[in-house]
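can u do me a favor
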């Protein structure tokens, strides 16, 4: 995503991020519809009946998906803002704060019980992220100078996306695990609202630019790869929420910190790792490990 937003040929026009969000939602809906059609043994009548029964016949259940869809749309647009103003590694580690917000919403909305060790791992995660950000005011060699105001905008965008991600993810988990509808059907509903909200965002934020240069202005092969990755990642994330939970999904994503740092340093050339960064990254990874350590129940501590 960052490569597509910061590297372009001379004279090449930058694509509009809000339109990319819309296409990612369209790709998800089409993929889910294809899976549902396959599940109906490629019988059109069965396929249509499934859509009618789960979407049109249950309008209230469908409308429930409008809430996380709207939040995901906001979040996806914020991520493009953040990636345009932060280096990839800093963005990735900072975005791990969504683990904390997800845990808080899980406790409040799903009544999950987190023991002392798990909360300790979350605090360690916050410390690790703080250490990673400690070098933000140092002048590091980058391919694109990032202004202080731009970094502030990037950090605010990430923090807002963390809150949006935490609430929307837990809300979506509650819906997925409290219904008999398939995960693919729920993603059709979620993605349909996402397309609507995404088009609204395009009209409000980039309507004049789209009217001048068109919806597909600045698109190239890299743009379509980014959109496909976003769509595929959304479907994989939904599957993890369905069969595991949001907190596990968040901690598993922490492994991408190492990959992002490697790519950012060796290929994008816009990040210079420091000792604070490595210390903070270690803190994040240790926190991930501690969270996975099973805690002894009260019955095991005080056997009858």
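np, heres the sequence
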């Amino acid at each position: 995503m960052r490569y597509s937003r910061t590297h372009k040929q001379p004279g090449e026009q930058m694509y509009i991020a809000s339109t990319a969000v819309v296409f990612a939602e369209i790709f998800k809906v089409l993929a889910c519809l294809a899976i549902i059609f396959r599940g109906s043994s490629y019988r059109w009548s069965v396929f249509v009946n499934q859509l009618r029964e789960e979407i049109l016949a249950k309008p209230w259940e469908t409308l429930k998906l409008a809430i996380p869809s709207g939040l995901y749309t906001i979040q996806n647009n914020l991520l493009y803002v953040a990636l345009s103003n932060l280096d990839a590694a800093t963005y990735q580690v900072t975005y791990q704060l969504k683990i904390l917000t997800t845990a808080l919403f899980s406790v409040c909305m799903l009544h999950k019980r987190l023991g002392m060790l798990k909360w300790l791992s979350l605090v360690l995660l916050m410390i690790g992220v703080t250490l990673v950000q400690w070098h933000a005011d140092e002048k590091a060699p980058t391919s694109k100078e990032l202004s202080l105001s731009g970094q502030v905008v990037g950090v605010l965008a990430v923090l807002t996306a963390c809150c949006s991600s935490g609430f929307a993810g837990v809300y979506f988990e509650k819906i997925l695990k409290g219904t008999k509808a398939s995960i693919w059907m729920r993603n059709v509903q979620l993605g349909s609202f996402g397309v609507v909200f995404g088009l609204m965002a395009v009209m409000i934020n980039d309507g004049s630019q789209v009217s001048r240069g068109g919806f597909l202005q600045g698109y190239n092969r890299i743009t379509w790869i980014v959109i496909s990755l976003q769509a595929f990642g959304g479907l994989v994330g939904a599957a993890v929420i369905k069969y595991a939970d949001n907190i596990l999904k968040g901690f598993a994503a922490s492994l991408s910190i190492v990959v992002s740092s490697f790519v950012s340093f060796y290929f994008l050339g816009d990040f210079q790792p420091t000792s604070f960064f490595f210390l903070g990254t270690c803190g994040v990874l240790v926190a991930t490990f501690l969270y996975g350590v099973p805690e002894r129940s009260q019955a095991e501590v005080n056997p009858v």
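The longest helix spans residues 183-213. hope that helps!!
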